[in-house]
Amino acid sequence: MSSNRNTRRTLSEHIAEHHYHEVPRRASALAAPDTDEVEEVTFSPPRTTAASRISKLRQAAPAARAAQAHEEEGDDDIYERRLPSSVRRYHPNARAGQPVRGSATTRRGPSSPFLTRGLVVLSIVATIFGTLTIPPLWREVSDTLTYGFPRTYQLDANVGHGSAKAPLSHFIGINNHGVIEVLEIPTSLPTDPGALHLYVIAQLGGPHADQEPVTITFEDVNGDGKPDMIVHCSGNEYILYNTGHAFQKP
User: Fold this and answer.
1) CB 219 within 8 A of CB 232
2) pLDDT for res 240
3) How confident is the model at residue 44 (pLDDT cuts 50, 70, 90)?
4) Same domain, 186 and 135
5) What pLDDT does residue 132 have?
6) Pair 130, 216 in one domain
7) 122 occurs within a structural domain
8) Whole-number pLDDT of residue 241
9) Could you report the per-residue pLDDT of 149-192, keeping only the tens digit for each?
């Protein structure tokens, strides 16, 4: 048993054989030279000047713009153009096809003919009211600033009723709550009570009778050489003739 363990078996030698077949080359490889030398080829870019570059860019610009415009037109036909974000409004509760208040498609201005007619009628009424109210109010204010209240008018005139030292007489016309009165006062110290004269001219009627101003002028109406007194009030003229020492109605 020990002899068998110590005995080694010799294996026979096996030699492998390989057969190589030549691989066919490509047509481009057959045409290429077999040498390992590579010919160095130097490429030199064409020299261009700035003027030629600008001219080429100018020639290419119209074509590029036309192509871009054609591309944009094609996109518009396919895709829907969106509105600017500044005017877009989202209303989820609005019905389709109906304009929404505040949107870009909502019509501006009055939406009803009745509103337009109302504005026209209101402007006409305001114009009529201003025409009927403003002129009388302005006249009343102007008369108050000129004649005061009650309406009073004063002047001095030589009517032949004074003295040699004081020939002038002072006249005051007053609208005393609708009663037109004229007061004649000598400019000198009145020693004779008969030198003072009060003439009641007329009495006016109406709600605004006390607003009418009074003015006085003097003119020889009857041609006797003495100035007669003419009182103007409410569009009327009242004439009092001069007797030489006072005035009296015709």
Assistant:
1) no
2) 96
3) low
4) no
5) 75
6) no
7) yes
8) 97
9) 899 999 999 999 988 889 999 999 999 999 999 999 998 877 77
135: containing domain: 112-147
Report the distance separating Cα 206 and Cα 209, nearest Å.
Answer: 5
Confidence class for position 107, pLDDT limits 50, 70, 90: low
Residue 192 is predicted with a pLDDT of 75
Give tens-digit pLDDT for 58-70: 777 777 777 776 6
Res. 38: pLDDT tops 50: no
Per the confidence metrics, is the pTM higher than 0.70?
A: no
Look at residues 143, 164, 159, 126 and name the one whose alpha carbon lies nearest to residue 230. Answer: 159
Distance CA(249)–CA(197), nearest Å, equals 13
Q: What is the pLDDT of residue 46?
A: 55
Assigned domain for 232 exists: yes
Q: 3-class secondary structure for the chain?
A: CHHHHHCCCCCCCCCCCCCCCCCCCCHHHHHCCCCCCCCCCCCCCCCCCHHHHHHHHHHHHHHHHHHHHHHHHHHHHHCCCCCCCCCCCCCCCCCCCCCCCCCCCCCCCCCCHHHHHHHHHHHHHHHHHHHHHHHHHHHHHHHHHHHCCCCEEEEEECCCCCCCCCCCEEEEEEEECCEEEEEEEECCCCCCHHHCEEEEEEECCCCCHHHCCEEEEEECCCCCCCCEEEEEECCEEEEEEECCCCEECC
- What's the domain count of the chain? 2
Question: At which of 147, 171, 202 does a domain end?
Answer: 147
Q: Where does a domain end: 124, 147, 170? A: 147
Q: Do 180 and 119 share a structural domain?
A: no
Same domain, 130 and 210: no
Q: Are residues 190 and 238 in the same domain?
A: yes
